[in-house]
Specification:
mainly alpha
Length: 134
């Protein structure tokens, strides 16, 4: 709901489509974070949740697209419906974006490249700190 409201308010004051999508997303994420802080919880947007900000971004984009097509009322209803469907589906199936620590290569070539880019001391090999004499 807040992504739809933020995107529509941004369009109402005459800003373009990109600020509307960004401010719609920021309205939803900021409102949810403020709610969590007031309740004494860690804000859900900081991770471990079912695509919180991603859903807000998609909903704001759909709302802006419908507004540009001349059907803002459909955009409001469709945005709220998509938010419910996407968010509940993400929570139900446990969909999350990978965090920096979870991001691992999934192909043999990527694993090989990752191992080669590590320093020798982290690979378990011996680092040769001796210098050759001339």
């Amino acid at each position: 709901f807040w992504a739809v409201a933020g995107a529509n308010k941004t369009l109402a004051v005459g800003l373009g489509w990109l600020p509307a999508i960004l401010l719609g997303t920021l309205t939803a994420v900021g409102g949810g974070a403020l709610r969590d802080v007031i309740l004494g919880r860690v804000p859900a947007v900081f991770g471990g949740n079912g695509l919180y900000a991603t859903v807000a971004l998609m909903v704001a984009a759909v709302t802006v697209l419908c507004s540009y097509l001349g059907i803002p009322e459909v955009g409001i209803g469709l945005g709220i419906a998509l938010a419910l469907v996407f968010r509940l589906t993400a929570v139900h199936y446990g969909w999350n974006l990978p965090s920096g620590l979870d991001w691992q290569p999934h192909s043999p070539r990527a694993s090989l490249m990752r191992r080669r880019s590590r320093p020798a001391s982290r690979r378990g090999g011996k680092s040769d700190s001796r210098k050759e004499e001339p």
